[in-house]
Recover the amino acids of this structure.
């Protein structure tokens, strides 16, 4: 658990100021489950940063591309389901708040040669919601680039207001997809956990409205 605290500290400046000053945490995670090629059992942890963000830490979200690297390694995915509750409030994800998107940040380490691109895409929805809406954000990182990174995912959907939970919260489904592409088969690249903390971290911004 201690290995996640540094990353949480580094990401705090990106939380909306009003919520960052709120030290009361009345939102709660009731349950978490996940599956995918980038998240074998026991390799993902979920926590709440005050009421302002959901922080996911992945131990083996790692993609690689290059000569003699199996083709399957260039794609990784993980679907994380987190049941978040906060009585008397509805939760908004990937939406505009005060003219700015209450967005998602990803943090880790990479080594990309020129001609290699890394794409991280996330699709959000609430399981069982009556409107069945989803929202998408992504980012593309172009090589050459090496070392630690902290990137914000941009909202690429027409639903600029994001998605909203039922009153009291709900089961948020986060479908993460990591992909590496290259212009030819002789160049290499990798993206994954930070070398210092041995985790790949995703921080999903949350905003709340009384209901």
């Amino acid at each position: 658990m201690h290995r996640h605290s540094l990353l949480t500290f580094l990401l705090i400046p990106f939380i909306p100021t009003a919520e960052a000053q709120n030290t009361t945490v009345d939102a709660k995670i009731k349950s978490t489950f996940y599956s995918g090629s980038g998240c074998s059992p026991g390799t993902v942890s979920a926590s709440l940063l005050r009421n302002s963000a959901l922080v996911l830490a992945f131990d083996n979200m790692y993609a690689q591309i290059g000569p003699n690297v199996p083709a399957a390694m260039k794609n990784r995915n993980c679907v994380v389901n987190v049941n978040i509750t906060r009585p008397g409030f509805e939760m908004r994800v990937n939406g505009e708040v005060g003219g700015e998107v209450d967005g998602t940040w990803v943090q880790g380490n990479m080594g990309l040669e020129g001609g290699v691109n890394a794409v991280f895409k996330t699709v959000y929805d609430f399981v069982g919601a009556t409107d069945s809406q989803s929202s998408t954000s992504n980012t593309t990182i172009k090589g050459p680039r090496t070392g630690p990174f902290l990137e914000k995912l941009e909202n690429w959907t027409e639903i600029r207001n994001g998605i909203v939970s039922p009153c009291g919260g709900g089961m948020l489904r986060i479908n993460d997809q990591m992909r590496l592409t290259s212009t030819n088969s002789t160049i290499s690249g990798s993206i994954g956990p930070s070398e210092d903390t041995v985790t790949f971290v995703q921080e999903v911004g949350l905003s709340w409205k009384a209901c």
